[in-house]
Amino acid sequence: MADTLPGTLGPLLRAARERLAAAGVADPALDARLIVEHFSGTTRTQAIAEPQKAVEADVVAAIDAALRRRLAGEPVHRILGYREFYGLRLALSPETLEPRPDTETLVEAVLPFASETAERLGECRILDLGTGTGAIALALLSAVPAATATGVDISQDALATATRNAEQTGLAGRFEALHSDWFAKVCGRYHVIAANPPYIPSGDIGNLQDEVRDFDPHRALDGGVDGLGPYRIIAAEAARFLEAQGKIAVEIGHTQRNEVKDIFTAAGYRLARAFVDLGGNDRVLVFEQGKP
Ligand SMILES: C[S@@+](CC[C@H](N)C(=O)[O-])C[C@H]1O[C@@H](n2cnc3c(N)ncnc32)[C@H](O)[C@@H]1O
């Protein structure tokens, strides 16, 4: 491992990649590129076209510090302070989950219904339970211009971050952040209730990948003894907040399809559709009111 990083762009990128690769980081080329581009304010094209471009000493120092954090196990997006989700750059903070690409499956699952509702009624009211960075709500707002969304979270830090993300994506006028324990402070009825709740059984948290266990907030992960606690609350209480023809879409752990379906069926819903994620795992269930 080189002790001193070079002060020109191409060699700097190469040295960063080599440091991460030597330490066994899973995707050293991508992580090195994200870190170097972020802290130097350069692009991929510049690294190729202008490899001799000088990089200021303080920028090299910032990259060095970021690489050390990555080598200590911190996920690259926590170091950068943001993650892309559905084409939106979303800021992260200590109490927000890093939004995952698999959660885009939920956005895709409800998007046709949200668009059709907005077209038919001129509006579509969305409730995003456990909004975190605001990922699901903001992705839907970005795709459905007539929609409005309320993002609920128990974490004030998450709500502050979601609000900031709404402002930075130009969606603040249609987004409301609400501090609430699930439905406790929610008013009104919604056409879409979406949730990616915590769904890891408490006893499994210790076995998660280090990057998840050590850097994602446990309140965003821990779904209680069997991981199903939040689904029971949502299924039991959603009816008062759902429009008659509305839909509930929940992200699930890949082994939870049958249990979550049974919870919602017992509460008076039928499974309208199930979706798999990019890896082919069960990931999203969409329910509507009525018998199966
Ligand atoms: C798995 S994260 C999902 C975050 C975001 N929706 C996403 O998909 O990236 C679950 C979220 O639920 C929130 N949460 C946990 N318990 C809650 C509760 N009782 N009421 C409201 N939100 C809660 C957490 O703070 C966290 O932001």
From TrEMBL:
<keyword id="KW-0489">Methyltransferase</keyword>
<dbReference type="Pfam" id="PF05175">
    <property type="entry name" value="MTS"/>
</dbReference>
<feature type="binding site">
    <location>
        <position position="182"/>
    </location>
    <ligand>
        <name>S-adenosyl-L-methionine</name>
    </ligand>
</feature>
<dbReference type="GO" id="GO:0102559">
    <property type="term" value="F:peptide chain release factor N(5)-glutamine methyltransferase activity"/>
</dbReference>
<dbReference type="InterPro" id="IPR029063">
    <property type="entry name" value="SAM-dependent_MTases_sf"/>
</dbReference>
<feature type="binding site">
    <location>
        <begin position="130"/>
        <end position="134"/>
    </location>
    <ligand>
        <name>S-adenosyl-L-methionine</name>
    </ligand>
</feature>
<feature type="binding site">
    <location>
        <position position="153"/>
    </location>
    <ligand>
        <name>S-adenosyl-L-methionine</name>
    </ligand>
</feature>
<comment type="similarity">
    <text>Belongs to the protein N5-glutamine methyltransferase family. PrmC subfamily.</text>
</comment>
<dbReference type="InterPro" id="IPR004556">
    <property type="entry name" value="HemK-like"/>
</dbReference>
<feature type="domain" description="Methyltransferase small">
    <location>
        <begin position="124"/>
        <end position="199"/>
    </location>
</feature>
<feature type="domain" description="Release factor glutamine methyltransferase N-terminal">
    <location>
        <begin position="12"/>
        <end position="81"/>
    </location>
</feature>
<protein>
    <recommendedName>
        <fullName>Release factor glutamine methyltransferase</fullName>
        <ecNumber>2.1.1.297</ecNumber>
    </recommendedName>
</protein>
<dbReference type="InterPro" id="IPR040758">
    <property type="entry name" value="PrmC_N"/>
</dbReference>
<feature type="binding site">
    <location>
        <begin position="196"/>
        <end position="199"/>
    </location>
    <ligand>
        <name>substrate</name>
    </ligand>
</feature>
<keyword id="KW-0808">Transferase</keyword>
<dbReference type="InterPro" id="IPR050320">
    <property type="entry name" value="N5-glutamine_MTase"/>
</dbReference>
<dbReference type="InterPro" id="IPR019874">
    <property type="entry name" value="RF_methyltr_PrmC"/>
</dbReference>
<dbReference type="InterPro" id="IPR002052">
    <property type="entry name" value="DNA_methylase_N6_adenine_CS"/>
</dbReference>
<dbReference type="GO" id="GO:0003676">
    <property type="term" value="F:nucleic acid binding"/>
</dbReference>
<comment type="function">
    <text>Methylates the class 1 translation termination release factors RF1/PrfA and RF2/PrfB on the glutamine residue of the universally conserved GGQ motif.</text>
</comment>
<dbReference type="InterPro" id="IPR007848">
    <property type="entry name" value="Small_mtfrase_dom"/>
</dbReference>
<keyword id="KW-0949">S-adenosyl-L-methionine</keyword>
<feature type="binding site">
    <location>
        <position position="196"/>
    </location>
    <ligand>
        <name>S-adenosyl-L-methionine</name>
    </ligand>
</feature>
<dbReference type="GO" id="GO:0032259">
    <property type="term" value="P:methylation"/>
</dbReference>
<dbReference type="Pfam" id="PF17827">
    <property type="entry name" value="PrmC_N"/>
</dbReference>
